[in-house]
Queue: 4 jobs
Job 1
Amino acid sequence: MSIEFFRYPAYLFAILLIVSIACLVFIVIIHFFVPKIMIKTYFKEPYFSALEIKLFTGPPYAYMRTAMMMRLAGWPDCGKKRGIPATAHEVCPVWFQVLSRVFIRIFLTIVALFLFVGVVLSIAFTAFGVW
Amino acid sequence: MVTPSHEAIRIARCGAIPATQHIIQNADKLTKLASYGKYGGYFLGGLGVAASCVEIANTSDQQKKNEIFVETVASTTVGLVGGWAVGLFLVSNPVGWGMALVLATGTVATSYILGQRAQYVYTEYGNKIDLVSGAGVSSICQ
């Protein structure tokens, strides 16, 4: 087995990196379509701390709030520990709920695959003494 | 015996500390901390990209320029993607300072390591592609 054997995993790694960038572009776009009513109703105390509200409002971390709202829309039970009612998803439109469920699944699959291929390449490159 | 109404009169209201004083002070502290966190994000993100741009500008070797570019793009992407994944986790798991620090450090370390891996992948398999010139980076980072 030579280093050439890992050419295609390396290409996959590069493709996954490009897909991750595409995901980020999508996140930036969807950030502006998160229902305002959802943010107003649930992104406040006592569900979130004052620090979290301040930190995740406006750049550079506001996109993390989008992740929170999308997960809440797709999986209403997930806010149980924060005391967010399981009916939280009802305030946002169905398209947002469906989009959240689909996108988060795709996103997590890509991230998991990206990490896995990264680890495989790391081991292979170390074994072949590339670095 | 003093009745509650008399007691109310005896209390010097103007000299008392409002009951919400501690809450207000803590909220102010948290707001300041959040602001520091935001400035830190701007600073680190900006500094990383600017440092890479300077490095690209100061390197004459085109191969080296491409390696720096790939590493910067990959580590920035992984950092942002990691942040979003942390957001997904945070909604169901409110964390304390310790865990927040672990998550932040983990994201930074992962982005650094995967950035380096991307650079090696480029060096090993993709070095014929001139990304810096293709993306117009060489004209920006001069």
Job 2
Amino acid sequence: MLKYKLVMLLIAVFCLGSCKKFLVEEPVNSTFAEAYWKSAGDLRSALAGNYALVRNVMNSGNWNPSPRYFMYGDAIAKNYFTIQYVGDGLEGIQDGDFTFQYNLQYFADWTNFYKAITMSNIIINRTPKVADELLTDITNPTKFKNEVLGEAYFLRAFTYFMMLRVWGDVPLITEEYEDPISAPELPRSPKKEVMAQIEKDATTARELLPWQYAAQGNAKVTANKGAVNALLAHFYLWKATMSDINSNQPVAEDVDKADKAIDEIIGSGMYSLTDTANYYRTFEGLSSEGIFEITMNENNREGTNQHIANMFLRTAQLSTVGTNSRCYVSQEYLSNHFYKIEDVWDWYWNATLNQWEWKAMPSRSFDDSDIRCRRNFTDLDSDRPTCVKYQKVFYRNAAQKLDPYISNNLIVFRLADMRLLKAEIALYRNQIPTAITIINEFRQRNGADESAFVDDASSKEEVMNEYILERGKELYLEGQIFYDLLRTRQYANFVPWLSESRFRQEGFYWPINPALFKNNNKLIQTSFWRGKV
Amino acid sequence: MKKALIFLSVFLTSLIAFGQQITGTVRDKNGKQLAGVTVRNTINSKSTQTDQQGNFKLSGKVGDVLEANSIGYERTRVVAGQTEKVIFTMTETLSSLDEAVVIGYQTTSRKKATAAISSISGKELENLPAASFDMLLQGRLAGVNVQNFSGAPGASPTLAVRGTSAISLNYSNDDYYNVISNPLYVIDGVPQPTEQFVSPNTGTGTNYLAGLNPNDIESVDVLRDASAAAIYGSRAANGVIMITTKKGRNGDPRFMISGYSGLTQRPQLREVTLGRTERQQKLEVLKNQLTRNDYRYLPILLTDSLNPAFNGNTDWQDLFYQKGKINSADLSVSGGSSISSYRFSGNYYDEQGIIKATGFKRYTGRLNLSTKAIDERLTINPIVSYSYNKRARGTGSDVSPIALSAGSMPTSLLSLSPAKRDFMLGAYDKNLDNNESSNLNTNLNLIFNIAPGLTFTSQSAYIRDIANRLYNRPSALMSGAGNYSSAFSYESNQVRISNFLTYSKQFGKHSINLLAGQEAEKNRIQTIAAWGGQGVSDQIQVVTGFLQNNIGASSDLQKWSQLSYLGRFSYDFDSKYLFSGAIRADGSSRFGENNKWGYFPSASVGWILTEESFLKNNPHLTLLKIRGSYGLTGALPPSNYLQYNLYSVNNGGYRGNDGATSYNGQVAITPNFTNGVAQKNLSWERNRQWNIGVDLELYKGRFTSTIDLFNKENYDGLFDVMLPVTSGYDYAKTNSVGIRNSGVDIQLSADVLPRSSTLKWRSNLNLSYVKNRIMNLPNGGRDLVMDGDRFDKSHILSVGSPINSFYLYRTLGVFSTLEDIPVNPYTGERYRNSNGVFNPGDFYFEDVDGDYFIDVFNSGLNPDKRVLGDPNFKWTGGWNNVFTYKDFSLTLFFTYGFGRDVLNLFESDQFNNSTSGDAVYNFVYYSIRDLDKLNIWRKPGDQAEYAKYDIGTYRYYYTSAQTFFLESGSYMRFKNLVLSYSLPERITKRWHISKVRVFGIMDNVARWQKSKKLPDAEAVNPYGEYNGGGYPIPRKYTLGFELTF
């Protein structure tokens, strides 16, 4: 009997001894927090993850092609193009009404933004903790880690900057939560604090990042000192003009900082304008003037079938769609922006003689000699012209021309943008001739008729108007125009729904999706939209 | 391990076998020898079975008390006397009190059981035409609610024991099976890994249990209350279904051959209008609602009645249905001696579906061997079974088995050219779809009698479950974009060992029973999938020869393990006062450091009043027992690695390219921001349950009843809680939900006619009532509208309401004239919604918040919707009647379910044309029902039931989320009619055959239901929605025979 007991005991002991290990199953189907952050590759992939999340922020919209970067930046100024009705309510934003159900649900929502920010927070928190010894394949671990950190700081600043321009006040979170389940409910921070955070992050990134890319393949589609400076240029101009919307006088100190950032870019010698013969290449990406782009290159299977181009292209450019597209370019835009002044023979009423007179008089007429008109637009004689600025189509089923993906990078910052901003800065400093020179350089370079050049005798207000026209030509569909109009206070001529009174009430900001209040009692609606959503 | 083996062998060989033999025979009152009777020596606990002649041999000595036991006879005890032979004379009984019921690791007699257990003998399930036994359990067991919502061969029904506690924030569009919580299945003592880690549309989607041949089942016992189920601890929260398979019998080899064959018939198709009638009705509707100008531009499909392409008379539904065949054949051999026994069975089952290219085929084999060694103290019992299933799935899932969804059947006006017909049906004939699964189950049970009353049992099991699917669609069916192939393979392996000691002892009037054991199991699940598209040749039907860019692949490997300790103590005094307590401790790899172990105790008491002197030997009341129990059970989270913050690899996807894996060619890795928060503190989902029951038996089993009252509270339920947006994460599972199921289970059985009558009528009735309520929800119990539902969100989770309750507008009627429409007295504005004012002919929705404005915001709480309607059955059950007259027997079996609401989405979809971009064309293109038969609003003043036909109004008045489409889901089904005849013994004896039986079965004979609009009130998904899709429940006719020799 004793023997049996002994056996039982041994079995029991045997089982107990191994039980601690027995109940541990580590996943092999994915990596996880404790197992990650152990090599240079891990850091690179995490950073790629952060860029990918930012890419998702900028390209996401509702279920139809409607990348939000352009919806915020271009679509709400109706004078540039028209969104046609298909049932998602997107066209509502062109009339300044952001409250349609799906617009609230998709475009007034922060979810994607905070995923990108959280990723930056995680990288910023964890990268310094990766021991240098683990980075065996890196010659200079400190430099490598600085670059990773610099890019993460840049992405965080860039993401907050995008939010700043759309919502003004947003919650600020700059730490990685130990336990996201008990994450606190955060109120919206005043835009002043958001700006301070962006400035802090961007200047940190500027310290950490070099001009030259460690790997040439990462050029332009990841951040370097140039990208940070370009962000800072836009940021300081926004800060200078939008901190106090009741004042039309920009803050000189911030204007100077913007100017300095642009000078650094130009002075670096890293960038040059694309030869106009290769104009379209700029918008495919990786051109000599590109400063920061989001890659959407089909060579890496990273193209998209919901590109901003998908809202415009028709059968001629994209074989899988019909002849009607969601958006078309407005005729007024074309005739307002691309014109020449020539003598037109016609009957004119002569008031003094009190009779009709046949004579030649200078008059504006449409002129497509500017390369930016010829290259960017087609179907000009129809009532619904098409924008073909982005049209690098790649068919995944090449044989049958099916399954198309657009392979144009999303151009965020480029040299031409920076150079034009110099004109804005000059105007803020009342250096009108400088501004005129810059604008006319652009017109000349792109082949516009001389009659369309800005007259040297123009007033500041006139030049500002010409400046906005120039931005409208140069940066059509690059997610910039609405912010340009707000900064320069030129919205009144281009955004019919934005009255001065609405502007003063900050009615250009977006509301936030009421669904976000569900898990956060401290959130409040954007002031203009209280009681309207 | 090696050491353990050595010890084990030493331990086994050191036993010294020695003892005397007692021989005897068992007979009934008429002197007929009884085979298969268990004879047990109560002194040394050894037992044997009688052979074909009723003889037995058993070790023991003079003076030992022997006990003979056989179902249908009263338990008899005889003291082994000096005479050579012990003779038992057994009296027949109808009482089931001595029947063994399985309580997990042990069996007990029904009389002494203190838990709520319902049981059914395998005999009742034999030869019924169904692929899997769970379908057959419908209506047969109190407290078990089975709904065969899909009639697809080999599909899974939902099976819930005492209500459901499955709750999710997300509406599942394909995995209906998991909408209702599933019990734990234990086959021959081995818990089955029925969890699938892939969705039914990814894998083979075949019911795991369909691999078990219903004819191999000896009995099914359902452990309903906590005291019974707690011995299975962490997996028993939703009840435990114990299946015992048939074993070998002593005696000469006995062959049993049975088979049946029959037809399956489709139910009535839905009514549609055809041809000329359809054209007329549509034109009439359009004439009333279109302007003259629009009316001129109607599609020629409608207006050109002379065009041969458009003057068809096609009922599209008809294309997809067929008459099916059903065949089944069984062979079993069993036999043995007092030392060893065997049983082998093989089965072939083939059911053709009523929808083209659907069906289910199964081959199974099962071997059960038992032999005794070491002086009959050690029983060695290996059980091996293997099954292979092949299930054809048509073109879709069980949710939608035909190519055209129910709501979008084209108009009958379209003539169906042969080419078009080929295309439509090509999906059935030309697709390759090898959808097969196989299951290997090997058990080894070792039972060793260490000393009288003390037994050591070791059960080891290896279960391997494999599912494969090879799929191909030719280019023509992929819009000419080249053919598509995919391959999928799933494999799950489970190894488990369970060791336990049992000890039972009687001291005078006290008897005790002890169980202590330990268990360990490891599971591994792996999947491999590959697919390729845009192929160049239809000849290639596998994933090869595709362009590298058009190929995708994935594989997965997951593991989990569990370690358990368990114990039970049962005590009874004088068979009068019963007590049982059990505890189980489970440790699981699915939880983090802080919460690996869960403890699940239970206790139960019973009092048999009829053993008290004041009731003892009462001729009328043969049993009165009161029972009570309380206990805790648990449930595991369905994911294996919740404790880790799993990262999403290849996460470069973005809107416009979900499949992107990288950023600028660098693989993108991020934490899983959807629901990947590490859950170190996650704990077991727990269930506390009390149960009070009464067992009553009158006239020695002529009338019996069992009534159980229960209250089951699931607390710490796992639920996705939304996190603040600034956390970056969407959801996290937390222990935050409480659900209560309370109710009563009633089981009544009776021999309606006196026992002396030649016509016998055995009637069993069971009825269960369950009240399902959500007790608490996270974030302060806020109501949650379910996500992922259709456009008109119509389900809500709300404290105090049942799970998956409907969330609807209340329809008050149809506005007859303009005067009927309310006007806001403050603004003078007509009653409206955000898309405009209501008009005569629109539905009138209740204005809950009183603002004269109906909110149409769909994704969230809506001030004008209410929690209305419960998709869960309140009453379910069945009624079985067996009439026997001489050699004939007739079975009538009914099942029913009452008190459920069903939302008829199919009907709403036929009218809801409101948001269509091209409403007129869609109205013309799709089939409609016969509008002439409906009281539909046509002109002002009509007192109509149905609102005006909705053509592109954007008024949402035909929204599916309204009570107008809510119907009663109550039904009663005449499920089976079985007529059988056994050849008289005098004939079979002449043929040297022991039994010949022929039978005819009609399955799904008739149905009575409250709703006039639902085609079949049972064929409704577990959310209580009928959407016109799904697989109709067929009627089956079979003829069969059974031969034993």
Job 3
Amino acid sequence: MGKRFDIRAQPGFATIAMFTFFLLYLPIVTLVAYAFNAGDSIAVWEGVSLRWFVSAANNDIVQQAALRSLIIAAFAATISTTAATMAALATTRTRPYRGLTFKYAFINQPLMVPEIVTAVALLIVFSRIKVWTGYSGLGYLIAAHTAFCIPFAYLPIRARLEGMDLTLERAAADLYATPWMTFRRITLPILRPGIVAGFMLAFVISLDDVVITEFVKSGGQDTLPTYMLGQLRRIVTPEINAIATVFLMLSVAIVTAFFFLNRKKA
Amino acid sequence: MASAQESARIAERRDIRNRWLLSAPALIIILLAAIGPLFIMLAYSFMAKGDYGDVKFGQFSLDGWFSVFFQRDIFDDTISLADAHLTIFWRSVRLSLATTVVTLVLGFPTAYFIATRPQNKREIWLFLITIPFWTNLLIRTFAMQEVIRNEGILNTVLLTLGVIRSPIQILYTDTAIMFGMVYVYLPLMVLPLYAAMEKLDFRLVEAGYDLYAGRLQVLRRIIIPLVKPGIIAGSILVFIPSLGAYVTPRVLGGGKNLMLGNLIELQFGQGRNWPLGAAISITLMVVVMTALLIYVRSAARTGADNNG
Amino acid sequence: MKWKLAALTTALALATSAGAAWADGELNIYNWGNYTSPELIKKFEDTYKVKVTVTDYDSNDTALAKVRAGGHGYDIVVPSANYVQIWVKEGLIEEARPDQMENFKNVDERWVNVPWDPGRHYTVPWQWGLTGIFVDTSLYKGDINTSAIFLDPPEELAGKINVAPEMNDVLYATIRYLGGKWCTDDRALLKKVRDKLVEAKPKWIAMDYGTIEKFASRDYGAAYYWNGAAIRAREKNPDVRFGYPKEGFPYFMDSVALLKDAKNPENARLFMNFIMAPENAALISNFAKYANGIKGSEEFLADDMKGAPELNVPKEYQDAGEFLESCSPEVHDLYTKIWTEVQK
């Protein structure tokens, strides 16, 4: 037998995957390219220049907005992934019991309502609270983001959990491991890819949210998307592209750091 | 023996109680910051609309709900089915379905590819998928405009290759909206699929090949059924949010053709009809929730069978 | 490592949300996105030692909803003309009497007795403009001063027209085009309005914002849009010309108002007075590219705006322009229904 038969390979899958990556990055490449546009259009190329990066660096408002987005996303993703993991454990691998269906619907509910509705509803509720307590910090935004991030974190974790082999956990129990130990050393590591997937999804969803943030934010609490929404009606300049490019660099940097840290562990 | 049965029941009850405790944080957060406020929306849908937006608080009215399904013709006062709403609803469902299918077709091989990379490289590939989404939705949509407009990349390539003779008008059509939504929701399909595929036991696949199955058969009868939870999770995560999408249709569709998200937003904006907006959203939510519940009932049943 | 990261982010969060730990002078402006000149803000901050924050909104209705709900923390809002009376009626803005402020003498007489704020008891002009016709004259050489460009499009332009997704502006132009008056509830006429729009829509390519780049890339051949964008479109595509629909076109004016529950009313009044000075008004114009309502600001305007045809309404069309009033809720309903039908 000459060629080794790769049981994992499926015809055409690698091609489609590469094509998908290409498609994903094509608009990104355009976007980054126009960040260096000398002109002030996001569609008409007029030569290379760094002016928009300079402009973005001088733009305090946009920097604060971007930072705010990151902070909210970090908090929201962490809290929601934790809650979602616990909820996934609670709602899978069990016979239907009273309240299971209800829980499932409850947890996924934020997905099902168009954002504008949640946004207006939250505006009404949070405004009352703001008036009563006088607190108007980032707490409301973080709470709102956490809520709608939960189903996004929940579903990948649940998908991973379903159909997971229970024999390993049973074996651990047979070996007198406490439930907590079983969880920490067997379930959690197996669950990890689902949790990572859920966290990243939640993070990205929170970063992108515009409608709910627009209505819940208080004075001076613009996030990057709401800042850009405001620009939509006026003039859109490549400054936005410059900011997006910086974000991109940032995420690449974080990924690289993560990668190196992981290698050291192994 | 009676005591064995009893202890089994006690254990089961304790198990259920633990499950409630575990799911408590998620439930509480969502109650406070998502569902609770919705009851207000429900109440609003039964009120009379205010003159300048908002509602006349406490004034009961069924106008909102009436307008979801029926309309009074503006000019001759006849009542008929709300044609505009149906058109919009149908367009949204169609586009969302198309989006789900396309993301599945593109996402399945991609997730599979990532899941079959060497162990230590997988998370890198995952990050590569999500990195484009670290840029902002609005900019990405603008960038997508660049690609599909008449003098954009897609048309230029097709023209140079001689596939078409004059630029295809893609931008500002329903197809453009679909492209945009696929682009936006792709990671929502890939990530759950990946999570399900990553634990695929390839010994089962190998067994399939040992039994002389062809690649396609192995795919169809072994791999796909095993990762079904991932497929379903991904489809839910794409279909439902895309039904209520609003930024993408606005930017790529040219704003000419409303989708459900735009229609609802219009009611809370220039339309100044909050009760109608609330009623439409609740209708949408009920429809979707019903479909979801049917799914979870059947999934729980098979799940229990598998884990017995 | 995770704990350190958590601690760091908590610190950052606290720092940014504490925010207003500055001097006792503060001002919170709630304005349209990308509409407030950073230069103007800086100048104000330096002159009065007040810390200014600007928060964005993208529509009158969002702003109204947020302020109405309470607990917003803003001092100043900048509503459009046709909304000012709504804000007044709902008791949301203060009768600040800018007409008694020091710099009021600089306000152009044209904008003092506007129908929606006679004598200027509530608001100070920020920017004004109008919605009119853009045409890429390399495609079409005919008369551009008419709404027919988007309602009965000439062949050369069909399929390349953008219409601003602004219900009031579009309906206004169509009603006037067909001979009616704004806020009419004449059903027969409105039926014609609806039919005309439904008939014209297939000839439009989009109903979108963001017009300037599309003229530059020649994706659009014509548009019904705001005049400020026309200057920039012309800069990018010298064939673009701006036309004033002779059948009737809507003015818009955004004005600065003091919110009733403002926490910093004194600073807000200072700001209102500040922007009535010609050199400051010019700062606003140079940023947003629209005209302001203050006499004497022309000499401070940027070169590309001085004498621009898009900003100066020619004499023969001055009567064709009108400020849109807010119609009665019943009529508004009617218009919304027509609009939904057009957009479905």
Job 4
Amino acid sequence: MIGLIASIALTSIGALAWGLLLGGVSRMVTARIHGRIGPRLTQNYIDLWKLFRKKSSIHHGTMFWLAPMFRITGGIGVLLLVPLVAGNSLIVNMSFAGDLLLVVYFMFFGCLGMALGAGDSGHPYAVIAVSRGLSQMSSYELSFSAVVLVLAAGLGTLSIREMVAAQQGGILSWNAFRFPFATAAGLITFLPMQMAYPFSIVLAPQEIPIGPPTEYSSRFLSFMFSGRAIFGVAKLVLFVNLFFGGAGSWPGLLVKTFLLYMFPVFVSPVFPRFRTEQSVRFLWFVPTALAAVDLVRVLI
Amino acid sequence: MYCNRIPDRPDERKRIWDRVDDMARANSLWVTAYGTGCGAIELRPLHTSRFDMERFGIAMRPTPRQADVLIISGYLAVKTLKRVIRVYEQMQDPKYIIALGSCTINGGMYFDSYNTLNILDRYLPVDVYVNGCMPRPEAIIDGFSLLMRKIKDGHADGWKHYRENLDFYRENQKSVISDWDLPDYNW
Amino acid sequence: MKDCLHGMLTESAREWDVVRESDGYLHVMVPEERVLEVILGARGRCGMTVLQLISAVDRMETGAFQLTWIMEGDDDGSVFMVSAFYPREDCTVPTMGDLWPAAVAFERELREMYGIRFPGNPRQDEDFLLEGWKEIPPMRRDFNTLEYSMRTFGERRERKHIDPREYISEMTGEWDTPVPIKDGEE
């Protein structure tokens, strides 16, 4: 029990540190693409500390206070259920049959918490952003569920640990090569999960002030940022486990998550933003069709 | 929801981790994206590749709730002052004000206008003045460097001064704004 | 276009006066009773369909406001300006808000800045730019804006006067140095 709590704590802190560092790399890479110098790599840590130490004088209701907690809980929940390093005896997370469905639920739980908190803040722009975000999320949940279905049908299991075990034995046995269309669909749904362009309608900083976190400030915002960092790392590790064979060692995990993180960083600065109805239509049909191709291949 | 009394005095800056706090605050200044006057046109080049302010950690935030710095860019009309007071009081402590241009220092080009304030210090606590008409982006970056140095030394106390002398500021603000309908304490 | 305008103006054999005329430009002065008729004629028959501005000048010495309507033609962009004098006290001017919706904004500004009323303008009594203004309309020439600024916004700080010539001579030692002319140039 103590071991589980210790491993949860270590995992969360490590995920926070890694997520913030990845965010700093992303800002630097975006700046270099624009031809600028860009911030320091540790800029996100400084931002987080500054936000944490600001005084707060707002009170909007109970849900407003709870929402950042929901987000962090969602992130830590996803982290708990994905094996970080396969076969590692130090950080042992939970695992049981069917935990992939629970992971999908936890991802939705975090976003829902933030949506409720934003609604409680009483700012009309936050409510607009919440409605846009939830519509987009319901559409990519559909295609992600199709991808999960393909993997479950192909590998015969819904437990992430067994999926990772089924991908051992060389690069060609990764799911990325066994189910290429499902991987493509999964990577397309990775973009709205990270709120990267062209699917960043939720945040939309020029249209509505930054979306759901409009009224959030100081300590709440620092929790939101931490939640986003932890959540981001959790999704990265999940995708590495689902499609790219899991990680056999700590350096392998860091390298694989870094490379996967670079995918939205390089794709998103060159795209404009889809409107809500365009992104919903795209996410309903295109990734689902790709996953259906693989589903047909698996069933035949 | 508004308070009905002046908030308590803030803590004195005596603890040892306040220096770490001030280093963090100086290296990550977030600016409210609100262009109050003609100087806002000199703020836009700061985003671009030539003057790049992101390398100092400065970013523009769309809402005052998430920002530290408010930039009064140029002359401040009485109508704008009413809105700026709302924006300034929605920002969370600690917060700073940078005033650009000679109109905020002593009236500048519009010293005899019926509509613009002459000395900004009477209505809002200013931490850094940057003179010029309008100051170029390099001068604005110089102003930011001065603000960062002030924060690291612990002298950027505009927000404390505002809380402690709220009566003085309110009296001046009400003498200028004739249709005052803001709450007296809007924290 | 000009022929049409000249024709319309002389039609009813009442007075009008050319202030300035040049290629594609005509500025006339009419008595205040003819203003609506002239503007309607220019708009309807001579194709002056765009209203650019309604402007006012405070002629304090003669006790009048000079109002000018500036119109532009839709075929070749020629400009037609109509001016008229109105008495300065309790000034009321016919509104052009039914002909051009943009005129409503111009007339609101003139009401706030000069005190000219346009009966029939739907948003006359709203504040346009100034909120809670209690003095006389500020663009009138008998409004002392410097005195108002000193009274409301307080005394300004002490200013140092620096002569540029002295300052530059101190700093660089050079002033009135002629620019050297290279050989072979004028």
